[in-house]
């Protein structure tokens, strides 16, 4: 592989330069151009890395990518959870929280339907559904957690990544376009869109919504030290705790298998510790500036590595059935979310952010809300999306246990 790509697999600094450059380019485009803001920086990162990988400029797999998954992703979790005060989630995000939980049920239902319709064509379908269920209730971080939790093979992870990445592109496109489609304009409430009818995607100051949201903020060396320090400490404590529970809890029946997989997941332990800290020390953690920026940047780096293994050849030859499975799950999620949105008389904007917070996670939910100008849904989207990091892993483990992962 190292001789078949322009940048070799062992050129770690070169690959990190490419990844950082891709993220920087995506963020700059998103904050400068209307079309890029509508696509969101996450999609731009995925597409750019996908193109470079398939043009054989960068390898499909490399130690540099492993560094991002091993160190930056676990650190991103606590950083993004600094504001995940459970009391605040319940108090300020009640409507979106209800819809988010119902949307998560849609993902679970979609996984069950996928198992009975196409499951027999997928090897180790339990592991695959565990990864996808976890991923589609909280975002891509849970995908990594479930893949490591069940020891999924490299082939399965690569194939699942291909199917998932292509599905996510269709999914994000759907969420961007559904609110403006005539059918949904007639049959659903659009309270925020109606309020923003005269804005046309850009603010009066000429900047995109993303540029305004991620504007310059006061930050000190102390903030950087505390944000990164607390994050690393949480990760360092969580790893041996998860190993302890994994070794201490026996297996042998459904309940024990579920508890072992649940408490033996370092990502779940990281999330639980971070949420407890954010709830107990919410004032102190809210005073630390830059945590959200660091966490979001690390997630962008993760998105860059996610689409590198996505081979379009593999999609055509080996991954169509995985793609169909993902489409079924995402499709059911959207349908269930829209049905309950209509029944509860919520706005279509709530539906899109709730579904995005499930399938794409907190960062993409925020990116969607920012790009569309739905400022009132940015923080609630982040809060319920980070809650998905907790329940997503639980649901993924539950599905994996039921279907024999």
From TrEMBL:
Keyword entries, A-Z: Membrane, Transmembrane, Transmembrane helix
Keyword flag Transmembrane: yes
Keyword Metal-binding in annotation: no
Entry protein name: DUF819 family protein
Parts of the chain that traverse the membrane: 12-29, 36-58, 64-84, 96-122, 165-184, 224-242, 254-282, 294-315, 321-341, 353-371, 377-403
Highest taxon of the lineage: Bacteria
């Amino acid at each position: 592989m190292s001789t078949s790509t322009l940048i070799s697999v062992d050129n770690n600094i070169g690959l990190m330069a490419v990844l950082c450059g891709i993220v920087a380019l995506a963020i700059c485009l998103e904050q400068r151009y209307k079309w890029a803001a509508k696509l969101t920086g996450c999609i731009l990162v995925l597409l750019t890395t996908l193109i470079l990988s398939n043009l054989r400029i960068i390898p499909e797999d490399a130690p540099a990518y492993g560094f991002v998954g091993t160190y930056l992703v676990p650190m991103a979790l606590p950083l993004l959870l600094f504001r995940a005060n459970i009391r605040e989630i319940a108090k300020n995000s009640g409507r979106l929280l209800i819809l988010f939980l119902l949307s998560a049920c849609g993902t679970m239902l979609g996984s069950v339907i996928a198992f009975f319709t196409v499951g027999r064509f997928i090897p180790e379908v339990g592991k695959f559904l565990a990864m996808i269920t976890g991923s589609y209730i909280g975002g891509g971080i849970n995908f990594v957690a479930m893949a490591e939790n069940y020891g999924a093979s490299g082939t399965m992870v690569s194939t699942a990544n291909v199917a998932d990445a292509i599905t996510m592109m269709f999914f994000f496109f759907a969420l961007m376009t559904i609110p403006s489609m005539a059918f949904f304009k007639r049959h659903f409430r659009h309270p925020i869109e109606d309020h923003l009818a005269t804005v046309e995607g850009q603010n009066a100051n000429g900047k995109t919504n993303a540029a305004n949201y991620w504007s310059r903020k006061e930050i000190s060396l102390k903030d950087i030290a505390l944000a990164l320090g607390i994050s690393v400490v949480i990760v360092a404590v969580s790893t041996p705790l998860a190993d302890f529970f994994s070794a201490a809890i026996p297996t042998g029946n459904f309940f024990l298998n579920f508890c072992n997989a649940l408490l033996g997941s370092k990502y779940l332990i990281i999330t639980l510790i971070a949420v407890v800290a954010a709830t107990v020390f919410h004032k102190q953690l809210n005073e630390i500036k830059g945590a959200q920026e660091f966490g979001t940047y690390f997630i962008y780096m993760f998105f860059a590595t996610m689409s590198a293994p996505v081979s379009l050849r593999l999609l055509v030859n080996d991954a169509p059935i995985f793609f169909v499975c993902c489409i079924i799950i995402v499709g059911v999620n959207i349908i269930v979310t829209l049905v309950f949105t209509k029944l509860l008389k919520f706005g279509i904007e709530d539906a899109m952010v709730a579904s995005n917070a499930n399938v794409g996670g907190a960062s993409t939910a925020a990116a969607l809300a920012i790009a569309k100008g739905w400022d009132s849904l940015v923080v609630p989207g982040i809060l319920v999306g980070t809650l998905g990091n907790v329940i997503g892993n639980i649901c993924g483990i539950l599905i994996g246990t039921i279907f024999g992962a």
